[in-house]
């Protein structure tokens, strides 16, 4: 009663002995059968609940944020909030959590995407202050913007006249609103020189544009995993503000725990072990199957004792091994 909120029944062994072995088995297996039915019902709900939720939630057109970690890089009034529907990450369309994970993985693996800007606009918007040379590597590193600037970011690009990388301090939001490009050849316009400008950041840092609902896109600058671990997402977007955003997750989690717990109880209770239902199930099964072939009750009792002893030792070894792995391994 104090360890697990389950039911325990102590049946009168004298009354059970006078009924047939088949009826004994029906009584002994009642708890196992009950848990087995719970597992089947939970599996059915797990597969069918998306259909029941269809009138209240939208799927396949994005994902919704169900939780944002406090004091994370994406929290705050201008960051992501609960119930925000996310449809794009760094130019990668997002229609499900699987797409989100794929986009996160792609942003880590691939170089940062750029944006197409006319060279004349780059020159107009550029507020570069200085560039520095790393004393160890003798290479140019990012310092073309004021370090205190919260709206501008250093971008690099090249032109037809200057094939070397050129750095410009540009407004991040206005720049990322432009068409996305991966290569210089992706930017073309007749009679206008256009360059693909890339965020000038280190290999681990990425500039990701998160489109979430009707709000201005969130510009995330950092490692993509920081963004990934800052939010909890769901494939089910509520159709109304009155519909709970966490209901699908709660149903899914409850069913999985119910399947795991009740399924484990089914397996545990059929093990022929002392003090478990399996002990009485084994006894009833032996009486049902061997009474006609082995009429000697002492022999049947000896077989029963050996089977239950083996099951008890096997279960004890499994529990000991599990505790060892949990607390020592």
Automatic annotation (TrEMBL):
<dbReference type="GO" id="GO:0005737">
    <property type="term" value="C:cytoplasm"/>
</dbReference>
<dbReference type="InterPro" id="IPR001193">
    <property type="entry name" value="MBTPS2"/>
</dbReference>
<feature type="transmembrane region" description="Helical">
    <location>
        <begin position="303"/>
        <end position="327"/>
    </location>
</feature>
<dbReference type="GO" id="GO:0016020">
    <property type="term" value="C:membrane"/>
</dbReference>
<keyword id="KW-0472">Membrane</keyword>
<dbReference type="GO" id="GO:1905897">
    <property type="term" value="P:regulation of response to endoplasmic reticulum stress"/>
</dbReference>
<feature type="domain" description="Peptidase M50">
    <location>
        <begin position="2"/>
        <end position="310"/>
    </location>
</feature>
<keyword id="KW-1133">Transmembrane helix</keyword>
<dbReference type="GO" id="GO:0004222">
    <property type="term" value="F:metalloendopeptidase activity"/>
</dbReference>
<dbReference type="GO" id="GO:0012505">
    <property type="term" value="C:endomembrane system"/>
</dbReference>
<comment type="function">
    <text>Zinc metalloprotease that mediates intramembrane proteolysis of proteins such as ATF6, ATF6B, SREBF1/SREBP1 and SREBF2/SREBP2. Catalyzes the second step in the proteolytic activation of the sterol regulatory element-binding proteins (SREBPs) SREBF1/SREBP1 and SREBF2/SREBP2: cleaves SREBPs within the first transmembrane segment, thereby releasing the N-terminal segment with a portion of the transmembrane segment attached. Mature N-terminal SREBP fragments shuttle to the nucleus and activate gene transcription.</text>
</comment>
<dbReference type="InterPro" id="IPR008915">
    <property type="entry name" value="Peptidase_M50"/>
</dbReference>
<keyword id="KW-0812">Transmembrane</keyword>
<protein>
    <recommendedName>
        <fullName>Membrane-bound transcription factor site-2 protease</fullName>
        <ecNumber>3.4.24.85</ecNumber>
    </recommendedName>
</protein>
<dbReference type="Pfam" id="PF02163">
    <property type="entry name" value="Peptidase_M50"/>
</dbReference>
<feature type="transmembrane region" description="Helical">
    <location>
        <begin position="25"/>
        <end position="52"/>
    </location>
</feature>
<dbReference type="GO" id="GO:0031293">
    <property type="term" value="P:membrane protein intracellular domain proteolysis"/>
</dbReference>
């Amino acid at each position: 009663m104090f360890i697990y909120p389950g039911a325990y029944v102590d049946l009168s062994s004298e009354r059970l002995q006078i009924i047939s072995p088949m009826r004994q088995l029906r009584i002994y297996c009642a708890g196992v059968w009950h848990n087995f039915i719970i597992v089947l019902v939970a599996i059915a709900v797990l597969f069918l609940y998306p259909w029941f939720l269809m009138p209240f939630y939208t799927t396949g057109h994005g994902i919704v944020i169900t939780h944002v970690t406090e004091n994370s890089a994406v929290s705050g009034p201008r960051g992501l909030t609960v119930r925000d529907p996310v449809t794009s990450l760094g130019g990668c369309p997002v229609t499900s959590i699987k797409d989100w994970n794929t986009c996160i993985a792609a942003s880590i693996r691939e170089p940062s995407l750029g944006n197409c800007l006319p060279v004349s606009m780059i020159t107009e918007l550029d507020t570069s202050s200085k560039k520095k040379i790393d004393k160890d590597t003798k290479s140019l590193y990012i310092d073309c913007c004021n370090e205190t600037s919260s709206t501008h970011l250093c971008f690099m690009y090249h032109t037809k006249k200057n094939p070397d990388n050129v750095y410009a301090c540009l407004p991040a939001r206005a720049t990322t609103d432009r068409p996305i490009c991966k290569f210089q050849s992706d930017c073309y316009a007749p009679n206008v020189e256009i360059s693909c400008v890339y965020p000038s950041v280190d290999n681990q840092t990425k500039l990701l544009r998160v489109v979430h609902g009707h709000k201005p896109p969130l510009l995330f600058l950092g490692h993509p995993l920081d963004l990934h671990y800052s939010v909890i997402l769901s494939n089910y977007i509520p159709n109304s503000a009155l519909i709970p955003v966490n209901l699908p997750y709660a149903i899914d989690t409850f069913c999985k725990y119910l399947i795991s717990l009740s399924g484990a109880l089914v397996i545990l209770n059929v093990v022929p072990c002392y003090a478990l239902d399996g002990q009485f199930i084994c006894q009833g099964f032996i009486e049902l199957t061997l009474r006609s072939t082995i009429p000697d009750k002492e022999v049947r009792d000896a077989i029963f004792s050996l089977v239950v002893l083996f099951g008890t030792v096997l279960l004890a070894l499994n529990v000991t091994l599990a505790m060892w792995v949990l607390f020592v391994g």
